[in-house]
Amino acid sequence: MSSEDDDTRPQMVITGERTVPGIWHENYWFRRHEVVYESLRDRVRSARVLEAGCGEGYGADLLSRAAGSLFALDYDEYAAGHVRTAYPDVPVVRGNLVALPYADASFDVVVSLQTIEHLWDQDGFVAECVRVLRPGGVLVVSTPNTLTFPPGNIYHPKELEPGELRDLVARHATVTSLVGLHHGPRVAAWEQDHGSLVDAQIATPYEEWPTAVAEVVRSVRTDDFVLREGDDADLAASLDLVVTAVRD
Fold first, then answer.
1. Domains in the chain: how many in total?
2. Labelling 229: which of 6, 32, 73, 240 has CA 20 to 30 A away?
3. Residue 199 lies in a domain
């Protein structure tokens, strides 16, 4: 059973700061984030994992099913408290993302998805993530691509372009891949007939969405997105960016 299918789980309040599973009009954004977590199952298998910036906790819950052990951390007291209640099997700590409360070389994998854009000290955050990795450990960071992400999110002090993300992480670890997340064939075909699905969602309150928009938002699943490596133009056109790096 996936996170959004559990009707008994407490639900976070939607503020615009993070996506929340189990809410139909958030389904597009939830699936867009969930697909990256799903892609990391093999990466974290049997590993000691830290999720730095766990938010609502659905991703930590998903990864914990494959990891050898997983620890979740978030700075927000409300989020950390929610994780303790909603996902009691996921150990969570409230802590500073630029001063991680763990010893050097504590983890095999550090995952931080859709978090770095919320931070003022992004360089300090990456340095801390690498510090707590063992030599040869893997860091995975995702972020919305500022070249395609809707502007004006008050919770994002600094959004990143592909080259900026690559360079930021490369100052602290060896970058092994940078991939972009794109709409898959079904959503791309819908957009050919109706225009941008993202634009359609932000144009009006969800109560006023046309039937076609509401129907496709409800129906989106993780296989409606693809992750792929590409040239600079392809990365520039991507919705989200995912960088993977190894600690030397």
1. 1
2. 73
3. no
Q: Can you give the residue range of the structural domain that contains 156?
A: 3-184+228-246
User: If residue 85 lies in a helix (H) or strand (E), which one and from where to where?
Assistant: helix 77-86
Q: Taking a C-beta distance cutoff of 8 angstroms, is the pair 83, 92 a contact?
A: yes
Can you state the angle between helices 211-219 and 27-39, rounded to 10 degrees? 20
Span 95-140, pLDDT tens digits: 999 999 999 999 999 999 999 999 999 999 999 999 999 999 999 9
Tens of pLDDT, residue by residue over 183-232, are: 999 999 999 999 999 999 999 999 999 999 999 999 999 999 999 999 99
